[in-house]
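Batch job 17 of 40 flagged for manual review because the log was empty.
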Amino acid sequence: MMESETSYGFGWYLKETDQAMTRYMDRSLVKIGLTRFHWQIMNRIHLSGLAVKEKLYARHYLGADEFNEVIDSLVRRGWVYIVEPAEPGETKLQFTDAGENMYAEVAATVKEAAVQMFAPITKQEYGTTVNVLNRLIQHMNATGTED
């Protein structure tokens, strides 16, 4: 493995990539008043039929107020509603008809942005990178802590 004095650790590159992806997606979605985190929530609802607020990825990356504001903004737009009655400890989110219809427009914007975002790498490089990251995730999740 080649290492120069100016190289950073693997984790730094992962964090920088994630932050750059967030900035890139936010710039792409700003014209419709959304962020990457709005998209992630909408996509989870689309893929699963509903999203459980307490299990959303975005909660790890946003402060509680900012996280709640992202969800509240989707509710205020009339795209998402909170399912009642709620299960204890779970806030379930689903699309309204307007939200389901808006999903296609947002998805098209995200797809176009992703094509541009990944333009400098080949499909093979993308596949290799995802494969390597997936193997690392599986390995680290399977490895117990041993004192």
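Reviewer: the log was empty due to a logging misconfiguration, but the result itself is present. The chain has five helices and three strands. Unflagging and moving on to job 18.
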